[in-house]
Amino acid sequence: MERSPGEGPRPSPLDQPSAPSDPTDQPPAAHAKPDPGSGGQPAGPGAAGEALAVLTSFGRRLLVLIPVYLAGAVGLSVGFVLFGLALYLGWRRVRDEKERSLRAARQLLDDEEQLTAKTLYMSHRELPAWVSFPDVEKAEWLNKIVAQVWPFLGQYMEKLLAETVAPAVRGSNPHLQTFTFTRVELGEKPLRIIGVKVHRGRRKEQILLDLNISYVGDVQIDVEVKKYFCKAGIKGMQLHGVLRVILEPLIGDLPIVGAVSMFFIRRPTLDINWTGMTNLLDIPGLSSLSDTMIMDSIAAFLVLPNRLLVPLVPDLQDVAQLRSPLPRGIIRIHLLAARGLSSKDKYVKGLIEGKSDPYALVRLGTQTFCSRVIDEELNPQWRETYEVMVHEVPGQEIEVEVFDKDPDKDDFLGRMKLDVGKVLQAGVLDDWFPLQGGQGQVHLRLEWLSLLSDAEKLEQVLQWNRGVSSRPEPPSAAILVVYLDRGQDLPLKKGNKEPNPMVQLSIQDVTQESKAVYSSNCPVWEEAFRFFLQDPQSQELDVQVKDDSRALTLGALTLPLARLLTAPELTLDQWFQLSSSGPNSRLYMKLVMRILYLDSSEVSFPTVPGSPDAWDEDNESPQRGSSVDAPPRPCHTTPDSQFGTEHVLRIHVLEAQDLIAKDRFLGGLVKGKSDPYVKLKLAGRSFRSHVVREDLNPRWNEVFEVIVTSIPGQELDIEVFDKDLDKDDFLGRCRVSLTTVLNSGFLDEWLTLEDVPSGRLHLRLERLTPRPTAAELEEVLQVNSLIQTQKSAELAAALLSVYMERAEDLPLRKGTKPPSPYATLTVGDTTHKTKTISQTSAPVWDESASFLIRKPHTESLELQVRGEGTGALGSLSLPLSELLVADQLCLDRWFTLSSGQGQVLLRAQLGILVSQHSGVEAHSHSYSHSSSSLSEEPELWGGPPHITSSAPELRQRLTHVDSPLEPPAGPLGQVKLTVWYYSEERKLVSIVHGCRALRQNGRDPPDPYVSLLLLPDKNRGTKRKTSQKKRTLNPEFNERFEWELPLDEALRRKLDVSVKSNSSFMSRERELLGKVRGQDGRAEVRPSCFHRYDLMDDKDKGSS
Q1: What is the mean pLDDT of residues 193-199?
Q2: CA pair distance 1040, 1035, nearest whole angstrom
Q3: Cα–Cα separations (whole angstroms), residue 819 to 200, 816, 836, 1002
Q4: Are residues 333 and 308 in the same domain?
Q5: Which intervals of the chain are annotated as region Disordered (predicted)?
Q6: I want to staple 1086 with a disulfide (CB 3.0 to 4.6 A). Which of 295, 297, 934, 1044 is the partner?
Q7: Contact 899, 875 (CB under 8 A)
Q8: CA 722/CA 660 separation, integer angstroms
C-alpha cells in the first residue's frame, strides 16, 4: 500500500520500542490479559521474572476453579455456579470500563490522537474516514453574542442595501433604473461559529484567527424592477467554510487593533435559494447571466486574493498594503505526468473496456488552470507549467483533480491536496502523489519562488528562464502589483455630464479591468491588480481610463516597467499624469515589482541558455533526435541573392513654370489662375504634394523618399493637377525612367509637361545606396537636419532590410492543436504582414521587408507572431542601436520570443544612406570653438562662398559631430549653434543644438533656455527662443528657427545669442547665464558654420 507524501516511513514491529513500565502508558486491556501472540517482550528483566509471571498467571486460573469445587462439595446445582460467575464477570466488566474511561480521559489532554489509536489497536491509516482530531476551540460564548447582535445587523444591512447598493445597481445598467429593495430580513437563525483556531502571526503586530463558520439561515431579500414588472429575491441561504480574520496592525493606543481583514482561504460552500430568478434574467442586459454564474461570482468575491478590510482607526498608514498585501511567494507548478489511472471509457454497452482521455485541473484559491487532454492514455505525459501566487501560509492548498474527457459529462479519476507550507519548507518538492477517490498517481514538481525587492539577480533569473522550455506560458521573471487608488479631474462627458470611469490595465496580451465608479470625475477605486512579467526590462504597462461603455476614452498612460528597476525597492508611489485627457487629469497608483528567485541548492543556473545542465524531466524532448530523424536546425538564414540590394530614391519636387490656368469665374467670363499640386507614382506607392494657391509658377520644395529595386522598366509617373471643389483639373504629366536615375545616381532637370499646351516641372532625383558602416551616421543626421524642408517629412538616415525565414516551438492552440501563424514586422508607422502558414508550430515564411529609418539610435523593429483566430503567440522588440554596434550592421541568428516559448530565425541588416549631392561638404577635423563672432574665423560669411554644383544655396562647412577632441568649456559654459542661409527658401536658418557646462549660481541647477535676437532690430518679430529645460547644466534643444530675409540683408545682420533661466516660479525676471560676445563688446554671432561658442558675462568689457 503506497504511503502518502509527507508521511514518514512506518516502523516494523521489530523496530518498535519496548513498552514503558508505567502502566498508564499501556492500553487498558494490557493490564487484564496480555496477548501472547503480540510479540512483545516479557515484563520481567530476567529468567526469574519470567518464571514468576507464568506462575502468577497459572495461580489466577486455579482461583477461578475454587467456586466450582465449593459448589460441588456443598451439593449445589451447576446453575448457581453459572449465575455467580455471570455476576462476577458483569461486575468486572463494568469496573474495567470505568477504569479505562478514567485513564483515557487523563491521557486525552496530553496526546488525544495517539491515545485513541492505542486504545483502538489501530494505526493512523486504519482509522475510519469520519474520525478527526480538530485542533480548534469551541466558542459558544461568541455564538451567544452573534445571536444577540443579529437583529441589529439586519437593520444595518437594510440601510446599506437601500442607500448604497441600490443606487449603484441603478447606475450600472440603464435597464435597472427602477431597481429597488422591497424587503430585507436576515431572519431569526444567526450565523454560527463552529470553532476558532489561533495562529501565530508572521509578525508581532498581527493576530491570525480561523473561524469555522456555518450559516443555514432563513434570510429573505426581495427586489423589484418596476419598469419590467419583475420581482425576484432570496429566500434562504447556506454558507459553510473557514473564514480567516487578521487583526493588524496592533498599536499602542485604543482600540489596540488598527484594522480587521477578513477572507476565505478556500472557496466556501455557497447555496442560495432564489425566488423569481427566471423573471429577473429575462431583463435585457442580464440574459447572459445564469444562476451558476451569479453564485460563482459571489463565492469568488469572498476568496483570496479578495479580502474585506475594516479600518478601526482614522488615518491608518499603508491601507493599500493591508487591503491587498504582496503575496508571500510564488509556486511554480510543473504538472509532469500521471500513471496507473483508471479506465473510464466503455464500448459496446460496456462489453469492451477502453482507456481514458485524461486532463488535469490545478487549483489554488481562485487561480485555476486546465491542462491539455491526452487521448486514449492511462499514463499521460502533460509537461505543463503553471505559476500561482500564494498569499497565506499556512492555510492555502494546492489541489489537482484528474478527469476523463467525455462528450457529455467528464468522469472523475481522482484528486490530491497539498498544503503550500510543505513547499515553502522544502523549496523544491518533486514527487509522485497518490490520487484520493480514484486510483493512480500524479507527478508534480513544485518550486517555491521568493520575492526580491531589488534587481540585483534579475539578469541571473532571465538567463535561467531562457534555458527552460515551458508551456503553455513562458516562465516569469517578476511580478507586478498595481494598487489603483483614485483619479482626479477626469474630463466630463458631452453635456458636462459626470463620467462613469473604469480603468483597463494591460501588459502585452493580458488585460485586467477595475470596477466602474458611477457619476464621478474624481473616482476612488482602491483595487489591486497582479501581473506576471516575463521580461521587466522591455515590457510596458498600458493604462486606459474609459467610461463604463468602453466607447469614450478619458485618458491614457504608458509606463515602461524598466523605470521600476531603478526605483527604491522597485516601488513607485505617486501621481501619474494622463495623456489625451484634461490638463489636470491624473491617477494615483502604487506600483510594486518583485523579482522571482528560486533559492534552492538543488537548482543551478546554467551559464549558457539551453545547456544540458538545465533541468529537463527524464531528459526527453520532442525536438531531439538524430540527423537521420530530422534535418539539422540551421544557425543562419539563407535569403536569395536579391535580398539587401534595394536603393532609396530621394525625389525633390522644387517648382513649376508656365502652368495653364484652369480657374474661371462669373461663368467663364473672368479668367483666374490655378491651385496646383503634384502626384507621384512609383513602385506601387503614391505621393502628393501640398497645394499652392493661385499660382501658375508654384514653388513646392518638398522631398519624398521611396524604396526601389533594380528591376528594369520601372518609371516614375508625375502628374500635375489643379485643386477644385468638385473634380481636380489636369495640368500635365511626365515620366522619368528609373533605370536612368539608378545608373547615373543623380538627375536635376526641368521636365516638359505632356498633354497640355504649356508648363514644365523642376525635379531633382538622387539614388541613395545603403552603406554597411556607422562611421558616417552622425554626419548623415546632421546633413538631413540642414537640408530638411518644412513641407516634407523627416528624411531617412538608413535603410533596414529584414528577412523573415522561419519560427519554431510556437505555443499550441488550446494546448493541443497547432496554430496557423503569421508575423507582422513594424517600424514606426510602417507594417509588413507575412503570409499565413496553416496548422503548424514551425512555420517557414521566407519573406523580406524593407523600412526607411529616420533615427536609428531610438527606433526599433517590433515583431509580432500571431495565430489566425487565436491571438498573439509571441513578440520581439529589436532596438536598432544593437545593429549599429554589430559587424557590418547585421544580425543573423535565432531570436527568442518574449513569450518565452518559440523562436524566430531572421536577418536584420542596416545600411546608412549617404547623400553625395546635398550641397554640404563635410570635414572630419576637430571642433573649433570661439568666444567671438565669425569675423575671427579663417572663412568669412561674406567672403568667397563654398559652392557645390548641385546646391549653391548652402555656403558653409560642416564639422564632424563624432569628433573626440571637444575643447574645454569656458567658465560660464558653451552653446552649440548652426547658422546658414537657405537660398531656395530665401531664409536665414539657425539650429540651436544645446549647451554644456553651464554655471550653477544657486543651490539648484538652472532651468535654461536660449534666446535669439536678430540685430539691429530688437522687436518681437525678430526674437526667437527655445523651450525651457528643467534643472540641468547640459540642456539639449535641437530646435530650428527661421527668418525670411533676402541674402544681402542677412549679410548685414548680427545674431544676438543669450542663455537665460527663470529666476522663480512667481517672478517674471530672467537670470542671464551668459552671452556670446565679440571684440567690440557687443554680443554677436554672424551667420557661420556649425560651431561652439563660449559664454561670457554681459558685464565683462574686455576682449575674449
Answers
A1: 85
A2: 15
A3: 51, 9, 10, 63
A4: no
A5: 1-48, 608-642
A6: 934
A7: yes
A8: 9
Q: Contact 207/236 with Cβ under 8 angstroms? A: no
DSSP secondary structure string, 243-286? EEEEE--B-SSTTSB-EEEEEESSPPEEEEEEESHHHHTTSTTT
Residue 56 forms part of a structural domain: no
In a domain, 589, yes or no: yes
Residues 166 and 299 occupy one common structural domain? yes
pLDDT (tens digit, 9 = 90+) per residue, 10-25?
Answer: 444 334 443 333 433 4
Q: Report the CATH number at residue 380.
A: 2.60.40.150
Residues linked to residue 528 through DSSP beta bridges, in sequence order: 483
Assess whether 225 and 155 both reside in one domain: yes
Helix (H) or strand (E) holding 320: helix 319-323
Q: At 164, is the secondary structure helix, strand, or coil?
A: helix
Residue 657 confidence class, pLDDT cut points 50, 70, 90: very high
Give the whole-angstrom CA distance, residue 43 versus residue 47: 11
Do 726 and 830 lie in one domain? The reply is no
For position 135, what pLDDT does the model report? 66
Distance from CA of residue 127 to its chain's centroid?
49
- Tell me, what's the pLDDT at 629? 39
Mean pLDDT of 654-679: 83
Q: If you ran DSSP here, which 8-state letter would residue 146 be given?
A: H
pLDDT at 251 over 70: yes
Q: Which of 582, 598, 614 is the last residue of a domain?
A: 598
**Cross-strand bridge partners of residue 261:** 246, 309
pLDDT-derived band at 961, boundaries 50, 70, 90: very low
276 and 349 in a single domain? The answer is no
Q: Which domain holds residue 372?
A: 329-452
Task: Indicate if 1078 and 1028 belong to the same structural domain.
Answer: yes
Q: Which residue has the higher pLDDT, 104 or 686?
A: 686
Q: Which residues have CB under 8 Å from 537's CB, separation 6+? A: 458, 462, 561, 562, 565
pTM for the structure as a whole: 0.44
The grid coordinates listed for 920 are 554640404
What phi and psi, each to the nearest 5 degrees, are found at residue 748? Answer: -135, 100
- With a CB cutoff of 8 Å and minimum separation 6, the contacts of 10 are 3, 123
Cα atoms in the 13 Å half-sphere on the side-chain side of 476:
26
Q: Provide the grid cell at 890.
A: 547585421
Q: Is residue 622 part of a domain?
A: no
> Is there a single domain that holds both residue 1087 and residue 983?
yes
What's the distance, CA 986 to chain centroid?
Answer: 52
Lookup: cell for 968: 574645454
**Distance between the two ends of the chain, CA-based, in angstroms?**
99
- How far is CA 307 from each of CA 321, 368, 827, rounded to the nearest angstrom? 12, 18, 44
pLDDT band at 959 (very low <50, low <70, confident <90, very high): very low
Mean pLDDT of the chain: 77
- Domains identified in the chain, total number: 6
Amino acid present at 294: I
